[in-house]
Every structure is written in structure tokens, then in C-alpha cells.
């Protein structure tokens, strides 16, 4: 079934990253104030479709921690990679993390051997997690966001996942702050990519009520 486990992984990954970024949470909260002022407190399709910063956060979270490892594709024409020619018809595997994080051309052009900030989220999350990259014209280029695939292989549950995650994020972020119970949880979970949801009863997150939350309806 589409949008099942991947929704759970995408939601947890986004929550866990946000829990380490209180300044980003504050920006989400401010955007929610504007949404309520324009559309009212009810969280309907119209309101969810007018949250550009929350959209950008979701994309950035999935860029860093995609909910799937990748997939198989068949080459439709010959391709030469690092001097090795692969003939048309070859079955290849693409790695979601390599596409979204490690491609220097796609992000900031850094081709040095040092780990650039947009990659090193485990040691420099504030530098790596930049939702603003999805708000500019460059991010609108075709295929700049490949987490859900592309073309005839596009995930059939993509729109459902996005709406479900945005709805749940909105419900939580209007009333609560997110905090990790164990500060280094994400570093340890990174070794389990892409399925980084901890087992029930282990490390998790705290929902800390805001002093002045926002209404849901």
C-alpha cells in the first residue's frame, strides 16, 4: 500500500531533525500565525497548500534523511561514469542519499574533498539543514527533489504523504515544541539509514506545550 511505512519514516525523520533545531521551529510557528490570520484556524486543504516554509522543511528533512534507500532503473541509452561505459538496457541502482546530499553540482558547487556544510548534518546540523534552499528559483529546477522518484516511476502516494505529514506537523507545531529525550539519538540512528525509526520503548521525543499555543479549529 502506498504511503504506509514511508509516511511513518518521513514523519519521524522530520520531527527528529526539527527537535534539534529550535530556531526552525520558531519560524514554523510564525508561519502558522500568518496562515491562521489569512485562512482561519481550521487546518483544511487550502491552509495546508499555503505553507511554503513547512513545505521547504519537509523537503529538506527528506533530502537529509530520505525514507527510502533508492531504487532500480534501466538505462535507455549508453552512459559513461568514471570512465566505465554502461550500455543501454543495463539495470542500475540509484542511491537516494547520494542523489540528494552528495551531489555538489545540485547544491552549492563545493567539489573539495572536505565535507561541505550541506552534507555534514551529523556534526553540523544547523549548517546542513537549510529549508531556504527550497524557496529559491534554483530549487524549482526539474528533478532537484528526487525522493519520490520521477516520471512514470513517481511514487503514487507522494501527494498523500505530503499532506499527511504536513497535517500532523501543523497539529503538533501549533501547540508544542519538540525535544529529543537523548541528545545524540540521531547520530546513532544514522547508521540504520534509511529506516531510522527507533523501536517502541526506546529513545524518543518530548512534546513540550507552548505557553501560548495556536488553535486547531
Automatic annotation (TrEMBL):
What SUPFAM superfamilies does the record point to? Answer: Cytochrome P450 (SSF48264)
> Repressor among the record's keywords?
no
Q: Which cofactor does it need?
A: heme
Q: What PROSITE patterns does the annotation carry?
A: CYTOCHROME_P450 (PS00086)
Keywords from UniProt, A to Z, are: Heme, Iron, Metal-binding, Monooxygenase, Oxidoreductase
Annotated residues that bind heme are located at 155
Q: Does the keyword Amino-acid biosynthesis apply?
A: no
Q: Which domain of life, per UniProt?
A: Eukaryota
Give an example GO molecular function.
Answer: monooxygenase activity
Family designation = Belongs to the cytochrome P450 family.
Protein name, entry field: Cytochrome P450
Amino acid at each position: 500500500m502506498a504511503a504506509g511505512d514511508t509516511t511513518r519514516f518521513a514523519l519521524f525523520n522530520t520531527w527528529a531533525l526539527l527537535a534539534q533545531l529550535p530556531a526552525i521551529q520558531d519560524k514554523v510557528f510564525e508561519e502558522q500565525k500568518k496562515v491562521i490570520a489569512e485562512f482561519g484556524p481550521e487546518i483544511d486543504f487550502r491552509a495546508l497548500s499555503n505553507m511554503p516554509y513547512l513545505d521547504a522543511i519537509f523537503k529538506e528533512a527528506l533530502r537529509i534523511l530520505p525514507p527510502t534507500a533508492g531504487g532500480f532503473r534501466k538505462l535507455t541509452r549508453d552512459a559513461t561514469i568514471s570512465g566505465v561505459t554502461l550500455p543501454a538496457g543495463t539495470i542500475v541502482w540509484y542511491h537516494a542519499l547520494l542523489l540528494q546530499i552528495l551531489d555538489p553540482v545540485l547544491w552549492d558547487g563545493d567539489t573539495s574533498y572536505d565535507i561541505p556544510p550541506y552534507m555534514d548534518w551529523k556534526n553540523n546540523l544547523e549548517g546542513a539543514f537549510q529549508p531556504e534552499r527550497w524557496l529559491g528559483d534554483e530549487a524549482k529546477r526539474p528533478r532537484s527533489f528526487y525522493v519520490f522518484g520521477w516520471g512514470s516511476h513517481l511514487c503514487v502516494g507522494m501527494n498523500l504523504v505530503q499532506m499527511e505529514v504536513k497535517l500532523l506537523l501543523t497539529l503538533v507545531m501549533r501547540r508544542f515544541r519538540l525535544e529529543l529525550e537523548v541528545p545524540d539519538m540521531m547520530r546513532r540512528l544514522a547508521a540504520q539509514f534509511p529506516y531510522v525509526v527507533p523501536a517502541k520503548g526506546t529513545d524518543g521525543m518530548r512534546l513540550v506545550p507552548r505557553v501560548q499555543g495556536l488553535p486547531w479549529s
